[in-house]
Amino acid sequence: MENNIKCAVIILNWNGAALLRKFLPSVIENTDASMARVIVADNGSEDESCEVLASEFAGKVDVWKFDKNYGFAGGYNRALARAHKEGYIYTVLLNSDVETPWGWLKPMIDYLDMHTDVAAAQPKVLSYERRGMFEYAGASGGFLDRNGYPYCRGRIFGTCEQDNGQYNDVCDIFWATGAALFIRTDIYIKVGGLDEAFFAHMEEIDLCWRILLAGKRIVVIPQSVVYHLGGGSLPASNPRKTYLNFRNNLLLLHKNLPDGIRGRKLLKRRLLDAVAWARFAMTFSWGNASAIWRAHRKFAKMKKQYTNHPETDIMKNIPGGKINILTAYYLRGKHTYGALT
């Protein structure tokens, strides 16, 4: 081991000079230097990011520079390979638009130190702009419903709840948000890291699925809190984001479902995506409608590279996996996680 600091907090940056100026000071100030080292991995930025890091944060953070933009998945794979080589036991994948309060890291390190069967965790994620509200990307722990739709304690589809302490218990979850993903570095390497074919969006869910298939646990630790701006790279309405979300959700199911189940699940999901396409078309959102069509065409080509599938369907045994979130939300009016249970 090349250092005696057990945790690396890695912020992947691409053309995010403004976000670094806004959010990096809180991470530096509120991360106990005896516990963790703050690292910015620059993904081939073409703006003034590297100059900002050199002039405004010299000596305060480590900077790892990559030669080009490898995407969220590829960038973090390279960063965690180096973190593993340098001996960091834990790594936090932290978005560049996250503000951290003092002591945010300690509850997660303490919990994983005591629970060796837990491979990954996330803090409670609140909105940076609406401080008392859960934030879309992760809230207080993520799940998948029976059709593969992601949802969270504190957020279902576009409905985010007020945080009143209702989800302050540590509990097992299906996936931890990539906005602030705390993980054992060796497990990350062992299960293959993030799938670079995803490029961005839902790759953390795929990673977490493989962690669960490896027999490890994933938890949310709400005693740790961060504040996430959200939409720091692509806004929710951006057709590029729509394309990646729909394509990657199909890849997620295709990769991780066993034979005998995969075909039925994907057929149903593609029919549901057709309904989503029609909804965009009816509202004249042609960019997003086209994105769904392109996502399905690309999925048909990309799925051929995945030929090894697990033998176990873990969805039915993981909390939340039996819920039909579309029916619950749109037909039964259950817009909060608490109403589902």
Can you put this structure into words, describing what you see?
The chain is of the alpha/beta class and about 350 residues long. About 40% of the residues lie in helices and about 20% in strands. The chain has helices spanning about 15-30, 50-55, 70-85, 105-115, 185-190, 205-215, 240-255, 260-280, 285-300, 325-330, 335-340, and strands spanning about 5-15, 35-45, 60-65, 90-95, 100, 120-125, 140-145, 150, 155, 160, 170, 180-185, 215-230. The strands form three sheets. Strands 1, 2, 3, 4, 5, 6, 11, 12 and 13 form a nine-stranded mixed sheet that branches. Helix 6 (about 205-215) packs parallel to helix 7, helix 7 packs parallel to helix 9 and helix 8 (about 260-280) packs antiparallel against helix 9. The longest helix has 21 residues, at about 260-280.
